[in-house]
């Protein structure tokens, strides 16, 4: 099977047949906040050119494709808060479909949901979204969920209280996102990583680690362009870098250090100058905030620590600009940036010189301005919506409307209509007769060349005992364009020379597929894959089925820490285990012990099974060091619920999000005493359910009654089993031993 692809469609930024006036992505078709619309109404308000409005809560941007408006938001209160994606009619605002999904095991606080945007693929009409819980989802135009990738459970996505997710980017046959993950093997260390998935199936295609250890997360959305014949992504990261990545392969091309912490703004490109602003401390001074421009054609310096080369060609910097989480807009050589204190600034894109500054409001958060027809459309945090006539010489305000709620999402424009979403309402302003804009051009690519390398999909395999997955192969030319597609001819287990753990995956290659045997066990490793005279790589894990048991006795304790104590490595296939846990001898047994050397990992969420697992009983022995005044937290994760003993608070608690699902009962855990914990999640036919657990001193008789039972109107029906440890300020270890997973009998 070897079929050529229509390359112009496969690698155009917005492939035909998109309508000319659609706003299918967070930052629009030009990726810099510009619209080609003209003839827009100059003056409008709540009583003038308001086409419709409707109750809705969100902090992001609605996107438009044809007669469909797609809105990402949230609804409900307390334990019943849901995020949703809905399709509305552009002309009337009527809801065609409305799909909900729930947060789980996250830190999102104060309704900080839906900070970002869905993305529509114009070639198929499908909609892609990353939820606040870290699920990448694909929806059909009819609202059916086509596939879901749980980044937290499968890839170790880390969670942050700010809830910012940004937006996916569709590039050819790929949908690309970036998040901070700590997974396994080479991807065990926490990094801001980019992931590409097959937009049709959700299969992993590549992942990339272009930066260094992050300080926080970033919602910067990648900008896509062609450079030297290849499609390149430019974005900012949670480690304070601008980065460049080959969109076809995930190869990290370079990074440019910008700040000491995460950069949230999306960059803009002016010729060869890549421009972004931030509000963090600068690398060369204690001053906070800066706008910088790097020449992307400049020289790079190779690094000896294994990170990507560093771009050193800074063209200019402006220390008067503070960027925050609002992205700049680039128009006719002028960069327009809103600061966190509510100022609008105009910067010369070629030199970085400040052209002017105008105070708009008292503060700003997230929302980026949109430019169309000579005007900037600018929502502000206080709910005001401003329209300003702008040029290099200055700005003149034409509209100032007070909307309901906080206006934290960027606006969108399509067919003469202007859409704004606040934390309380969705608005559509404009004229009822659509106005067509010019058609955006596709990316300009040279002719395709001969096949030069393989791209294996999936790029990472996850198998339970008895599972199998076909290894598909894309044939790429030297510039990353897909010139053919086939099935792997051969695959062989392979240990990369850089691997710190010499491990292989227990699977066999049979007729183009990897097959896990019935006794696969916990294994992980890499594979070399061959087809058409070329080779590529993939990697994978086999994880626990049901039943499963782990007592850690078979793990060698031969490593030495800086104190001289010996330890061993936790099971390699467990997501998020390395660096957060190790195996130590305690009380004459080998047990899983929470590490204390990295404050970034003072909390450890570690998944030990498959994300689709359901209807299981998870049990383990648990213990904490400390004293009567200060101990740590230890527990288990069952179907997306954390059931943990909070020793300091003297409670046993069930939670999924600390502000949404959190119930507890009194329970006193003594330090340095082992307890047995047993957990279950029971699902009822109507979608409700109960989370229950019992905890008692190990060695004593198991109590008949459950220690805690928490009823939920909406229950999570599946989720990877896991272990949890939280050592505040990395002071006191927690321990886990004798983990078991069994199938739960039908509830009595």
Please explain how this structure is put together.
Strand 58 (675-683) and strand 59 form a beta hairpin. The relative contact order is 0.11. The chain is globular. By secondary structure, it is mostly beta strands. Strands 47, 50, 51, 53, 58, 59, 60 and 62 form an eight-stranded antiparallel sheet that branches. It has a six-stranded antiparallel sheet with strand order 52-61-54-55-56-57, with no helix packed on it. The chain folds into three domains: 7-430, Methanol Dehydrogenase, Chain A, CATH 2.140.10.10; 453-542, Immunoglobulins (Immunoglobulin-like, Sandwich), CATH 2.60.40; 548-743, Sandwich (Jelly Rolls), CATH 2.60.120.
The radius of gyration computed from the alpha-carbon positions, rounded to a whole number of angstroms, is 26 Å
- As for the CATH topology of the largest domain, it is Methanol Dehydrogenase, Chain A
The major pleated sheet works out as:
8 strands, antiparallel
Secondary structure: number of strands = 62
Mean pLDDT: 92
Alpha-beta content class:
mainly beta
Q: Whole-Å distance between the termini?
A: 53 Å
What fraction strand?
A: 35-45%
Number of domains: 3
Q: Helix tally?
A: 2
Going by CATH, the homologous superfamily of the largest domain would be: Quinoprotein alcohol dehydrogenase-like superfamily
Question: Key terms for this structure?
Answer:
eight-stranded antiparallel beta sheet; 748 residues; mainly beta; Jelly Rolls; disordered N terminus; single chain; 2 helices; Methanol Dehydrogenase, Chain A; 45% strand; globular; Immunoglobulin-like; 3 domains
């Amino acid at each position: 099977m070897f079929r050529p692809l229509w390359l112009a469609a496969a690698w155009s930024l917005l492939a035909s047949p998109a309508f000319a006036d659609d706003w299918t992505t967070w930052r629009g078709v030009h990726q810099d906040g510009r619209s080609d619309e003209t003839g827009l109404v100059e003056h409008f308000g709540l009583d003038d050119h308001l086409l419709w409005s409707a109750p809705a809560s969100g902090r992001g941007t609605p996107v438009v494709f044809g007669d469909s408006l797609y809105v990402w938001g949230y609804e409900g209160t307390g334990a019943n808060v849901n995020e949703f994606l809905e399709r509305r009619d552009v002309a009337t605002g009527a809801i065609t479909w409305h799909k909900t999904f729930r947060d789980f095991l996250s830190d999102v606080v104060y309704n900080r949901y839906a900070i970002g945007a869905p993305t529509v693929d114009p070639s198929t009409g499908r909609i892609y979204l990353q939820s606040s819980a870290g699920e990448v989802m694909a929806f059909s135009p009819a609202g059916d969920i086509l596939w879901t990738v749980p980044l937290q459970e499968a890839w170790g996505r880390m969670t942050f209280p700010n809830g910012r997710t940004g937006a996916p980017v569709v590039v050819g046959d790929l949908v690309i996102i970036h998040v901070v993950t700590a997974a396994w093997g080479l991807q065990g260390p926490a990094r801001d990583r980019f992931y590409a998935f097959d937009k049709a199936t959700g299969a992993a295609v590549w992942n990339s680690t272009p930066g260094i250890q992050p300080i926080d997360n970033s919602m910067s959305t990648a900008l896509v362009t062609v450079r030297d014949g290849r499609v390149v992504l430019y974005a900012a990261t949670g480690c304070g870098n601008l980065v460049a990545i080959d969109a076809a392969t995930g190869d990290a091309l370079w990074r440019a250090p910008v700040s000491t912490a995460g950069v949230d703004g999306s960059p803009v490109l002016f010729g060869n100058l890549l421009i972004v602003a931030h509000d963090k401390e600068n690398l060369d001074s204690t001053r906070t905030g800066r706008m910088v421009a790097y020449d992307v054609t400049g020289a790079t310096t190779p690094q000896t620590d294994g990170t990507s080369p560093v771009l050193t060609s800074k063209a200019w910097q402006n220390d008067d600009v503070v960027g925050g989480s609002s992205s700049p807009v680039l128009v006719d050589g002028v960069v327009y940036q809103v600061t966190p204190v509510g100022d609008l600034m105009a910067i010369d894109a070629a030199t970085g010189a400040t052209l002017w500054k105008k105070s708009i409001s008292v503060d700003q958060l997230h929302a980026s301005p949109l430019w169309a027809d000579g005007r900037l459309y600018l929502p502000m945090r206080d709910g005001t919506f401003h329209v300003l006539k702008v040029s290099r010489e200055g700005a003149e305000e034409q509209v100032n409307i007070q909307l309901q709620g906080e206006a934290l999402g960027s606006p969108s424009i399509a067919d003469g209509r202007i859409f704004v979403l606040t934390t309380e309402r969705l608005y559509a302003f404009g004229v009822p007769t659509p106005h067509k804009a010019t058609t955006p051009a596709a990316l300009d690519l040279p002719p395709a060349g001969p096949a030069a390398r393989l791209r294996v999909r999936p790029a990472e395999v996850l198998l339970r005992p008895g599972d199998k997955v076909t290894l598909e192969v894309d044939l790429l030319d030297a510039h990353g364009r897909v010139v053919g597609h086939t099935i792997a001819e051969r695959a062989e287990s392979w240990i990369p020379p850089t691997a710190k753990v010499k491990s292989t995956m227990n699977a066999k290659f049979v007729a183009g597929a990897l097959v896990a045997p019935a006794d696969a066990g916990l294994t992980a490793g890499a594979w070399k894959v061959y087809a058409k005279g070329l080779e590529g790589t993939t990697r994978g894990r086999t994880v626990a089925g049901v039943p499963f048991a782990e007592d850690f006795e078979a793990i060698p304790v031969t490593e030495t820490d800086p104190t001289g104590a010996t330890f061993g490595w936790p099971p390699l296939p467990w997501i998020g285990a390395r660096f957060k846990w190790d195996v130590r001898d305690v009380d004459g047994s080998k047990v899983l012990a929470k590490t204390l050397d990295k404050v970034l990992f003072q909390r450890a969420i570690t998944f030990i099974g498959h994300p689709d697992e359901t209807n299981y009983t998870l049990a383990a022995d648990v213990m904490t060091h400390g004293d009567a005044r200060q101990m740590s937290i230890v527990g288990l994760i069952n179907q997306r619920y954390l059931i943990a003993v909070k020793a300091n608070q003297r409670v046993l608690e069930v939670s999924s999000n600390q502000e949404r699902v959190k119930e507890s009962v009194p329970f006193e855990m003594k330090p340095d005493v082992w307890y047995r914990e047993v957990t279950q999640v029971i699902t009822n036919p109507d979608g409700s359910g109960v989370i229950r657990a019992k905890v008692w001193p190990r060695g004593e008789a198991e109590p008949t009654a459950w220690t805690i039972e928490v009823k939920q109107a909406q229950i999570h029906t599946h989720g990877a089993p896991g272990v949890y440890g939280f050592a505040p300020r990395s002071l006191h270890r927690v321990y886990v031993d004798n983990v078991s997973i069994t199938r739960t009998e039908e509830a009595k």
